[in-house]
Amino acid sequence: MNILFLTLIDFNTIDEPGIYQDLLREFANHGHKVFAISPVERRKNQETKLLETDKATILKLKIGNTQKTNIIEKGISTISIEPLLIAAIKKYFSDVKFDLVIYSTPPITFCNAIEFVKKRDGAKTYLLLKDIFPQNAVDLGMMSKSGIKGLIYRVFRKKEKKLYRISDYIGCMSQANVDYVLKHNPDINPEKVEICSNSVEVVDMSVDEKTRDEIRRKYDIPLDKKIFVYGGNLGKPQGIDFMIECLKSQEKNDAVFFLIVGDGTEYGKIETYVQRNKPTNVKLMKRLSKEDYDKLVGACDIGMIFLDYRFTIPNFPSRLLSYMQAKIPVLAVTDPNTDIGNVCVDNGFGWWCESNQVKAFHKVVEEAVQSDLRAMGETGFKYLEDNYSSETAYQIIMRHLK
């Protein structure tokens, strides 16, 4: 089969690790021909080009700037992506008949391009629903359902409904996501909505004790404390103000050390806190390469997930997978609408508390320090193998096409 993958993720090969690259590699390993359109933003000064390997054909499509720019440029660039995609498919893939189109949210603005391929080739369409927009923007106060902002909301909501409508199948990250989509979109046929979780090629990323100590020394991390690590985006969705309150509550706890690795719009808030308070058990680091980050996580004891309490949509961050691969248990600090905390607790590899109660955070930290972390990490890795492998995701998608 010929598979077309549409994304805003910038990658040059499917051999590199990542939830989408791992899945595409699975299709290639099963003998399918993989095509992907992966954009490159104008700021990188690269022209559109085709990259061909034995595993995949990747079109690096030049688009406007959508990241690290002002909201006006971001908006114009996002809107202009659809016609660029359609033109690129016509020009570069005119002689390819696609059997399946896979795409993820964000964004929700691929509708016309997906519809074009679906009509032209009779292709099946599969949405990997990673982000429920525009409701997530409403939750964080970035958009409104009334007033001037309400006009923008209604435009995007219309796009979202169309995306669901033209998708033959919708793969959600968890049961809470399935329930949410069906509850708020009653016109969707429930039979086309299913769980197709974030997935990776399962690789044991844990480290032995000697390597762990070497890595901790390299980054000046204590050898004799329980290391809680947070890695990833530091933006509004993570509820950084509450994260800082949690860190403040632990400043006198000599048994623990908090390592924050990442970047984002709210990075400055944590940086200011660290510079002013000078906590002895908190270290803030800018984003590392994936290879270095994965090694660093393996040298820690507990992985953390933070989500803003205001969310009404059930987010399910993919950073969970890196913790599970490193065989460390997970502390989820989230809103009550996501089920990621329940997954960690119910399956024996983590803890959960709501992201508006500092006392609850303090309690689960104390509980985590006293737990058998090695055994819980092994349990998490086994759950990863059974539920979140790219092979599992591949089989879920393919059963609709056999």
Largest β sheet strand count, sense and barrel closure:
8 strands, mixed
Listing every helix as H and every strand as E from the N terminus to the C terminus, the arrangement reads: EHEEEHEHEHHEHEHEHEHEHEHEHEHHH
Helix content: 40-55%
**Derived structural class:** alpha/beta
Q: Distance between the terminal alpha carbons, to the nearest Å?
A: 11 Å
- The count of strands amounts to 14
Total DSSP helices:
15
Give the DSSP E fraction (strand runs of 2 or more residues).
15-25%
Radius of gyration: 21 Å
Shape: globular
User: In order across it, which strands form the biggest sheet?
Assistant: 3-4-2-1-5-6-7-8
Q: Provide the low-confidence segments as ranges.
A: none
Which whole number gives the mean pLDDT?
A: 93
Descriptive terms for the model:
402 residues, alpha/beta, 14 strands
Lay out the secondary structure.
Blueprint: E1 2-6, H1 19-29, E2 33-41, E3 49-52, E4 56-63, H2 71-92, E5 100-105, H3 111-121, E6 124-129, H4 135-139, H5 147-166, E7 169-172, H6 175-184, E8 193-195, H7 209-218, E9 226-233, H8 240-249, E10 256-263, H9 267-277, E11 282-285, H10 290-298, E12 302-306, H11 319-325, E13 330-334, H12 340-346, E14 350-354, H13 358-369, H14 373-387, H15 390-398
Parallel strand pairs: 1-2, 1-5, 2-4, 5-6, 6-7, 7-8, 9-10, 9-12, 10-11, 12-13, 13-14
Antiparallel strand pairs: 3-4
